[in-house]
Amino acid sequence: MREGHLQHLSAHLNPVARDLFSATVMITGPSGAGKTTIAKYIVRQLEQEVLGIRWGYVNVISNNSKTSVLYSLVRDAGRANDLRAK
User: Fold this and answer.
1) 51/31 Cα distance (integer angstroms)
2) Who contacts 36 (Cβ-Cβ below 8 Å, separation ≥6)?
3) Whole-angstrom distance, CA of residue 19 vs CA of residue 17
4) What is the reported pTM?
């Protein structure tokens, strides 16, 4: 069953390999189901095909506001400076 899910997710992100926009993908499921592991696996596979791809990971349990989610993605993509007070 997991192999089918991996193929489905890969198919949705395939346009990125051709420098096109892809569909928005949301992975849902219970805690411990392997959502993060699958997502990171697929993105790493995509990184091998597409040089310079930018991606980010957001733990929405600890970053649950729209602003913190957006900031996390922009930061991980290397498009933002850390403006927090030190």
Assistant:
1) 32
2) 57
3) 6
4) 0.58
